[in-house]
Amino acid sequence: MELYFLGTNAGLPTTQRNVTSVALRMLEERRSSWLFDCGEATQHQILHSPLKLSRLEKIFITHMHGDHVFGLPGLLSSRSSQEGSPPLTVYGPQGLKQFLEVTLGATQSRVTFGLDIVEHAGGLIFEDEQIKVEAAALEHRIESYGYRMTEKDRPGSLNMELLREWGVRPGPEYGKLKNGESITVDGRTITPDQVLGPPKRGRIVTILGDTRPAPGIDPLAAGADLLVHEATFTDEFADLAQKYYHSTAVQAAEAAKKAGVGELILTHFSSRYKDPEQLQPLLDEARAVFPNTQLAMEHETYPVRPAQDREKD
Ligand SMILES: [Zn+2]
Ligand SMILES: [Zn+2]
């Protein structure tokens, strides 16, 4: 499970950075990736990345501002030209359905795969045996949401040495033990607790849409291993942040600290910060409040590590 940033800029693209989009890659866990927001030219960014359109399983839209959705019709059209693309679900606030129907309809774009568009107003968005997605409203000029992904606990590792010693070969028997079933081999009954390590705790990733400090952030981010928070401005422009319903890097760090997250990644930078060096003050200001902070860099990968593992590093 890892994050791959495709766009980290607010409002408009610059020559250095594209508008917002980030992928949650879960190739090991579910052989697919999820996309969060899809600013214009996200598909071009994907061409320069290890991501594949056909492997996209879900797209979550935080809010309907253009810098977060203008890339969606183009991306869906391009995915349609790839034969055999599996179904895809797009989740987002009210207006998403109309936006896609109008843009795809007016351009007579044919979607060749099963496209499900789900409008929501927060709450439980998706759940299966692996993961749960919840959303809650933030505070922005228009309806904006954050998403909290909670991975379910996974079975612990099998003690291979002991199993080999007892004559159990890799195969279906291993699966049974992992599922909590006992097996019998050569007249010996082996119970899962004899050979199975402690369960691996599921990770929590929270990705927020545009927002200024809001009560909805804390429950979404509480105890998350990784929080992605917008940081449009440095502290110097706190008044602008307030006025335009955005956050400063310090406010993002304060939210991370309050929620007790493992790690904070800042994104959605104002285009006033043109060069990478100009982003350094954002990082410095945030780290003064919450040390385990990083800046989102496009085409870079950020593994989602359980917070307790990191302490051992
Ligand atoms: Zn934005
Ligand atoms: Zn916005």
TrEMBL record:
List of catalytic residues: D67
Alphabetized UniProt keyword annotations: Endonuclease, Hydrolase, Metal-binding, Nuclease, tRNA processing, Zinc
Binding site for Zn(2+) 2: D67, H68, D210, H268
Reactions catalysed: 3',5'-cyclic CMP + H2O = CMP + H(+); Endonucleolytic cleavage of RNA, removing extra 3' nucleotides from tRNA precursor, generating 3' termini of tRNAs. A 3'-hydroxy group is left at the tRNA terminus and a 5'-phosphoryl group is left at the trailer molecule; 3',5'-cyclic UMP + H2O = UMP + H(+)
GO MF annotations in UniProt: 3'-tRNA processing endoribonuclease activity; identical protein binding; zinc ion binding
UniProt: Zn(2+) 1 binding residues: H63, H65, H140, D210
SMART domains, sorted: Lactamase_B (SM00849)
Protein EC: 3.1.26.11
Note accompanying the cofactor annotation: Binds 2 Zn(2+) ions.
InterPro entries the record matches: Metallo-B-lactamas, RibonucZ/Hydroxyglut_hydro, RNase_Z/BN
Cofactor annotation: Zn(2+)
UniProt-listed SUPFAM superfamilies: Metallo-hydrolase/oxidoreductase
Ranges for domain Metallo-beta-lactamase: 18-268
Pfam families in UniProt: Anti-Pycsar_Apyc1
Subunit: Homodimer.
Chain's role: Counteracts the endogenous Pycsar antiviral defense system. Phosphodiesterase that enables metal-dependent hydrolysis of host cyclic nucleotide Pycsar defense signals such as cCMP and cUMP.
HAMAP family: RNase_Z_BN
Family indicated by similarity: Belongs to the RNase Z family.
Name the record gives this protein: Ribonuclease Z
Organism: Saccharibacillus brassicae
Record lineage: Bacteria, Bacillati, Bacillota, Bacilli, Bacillales
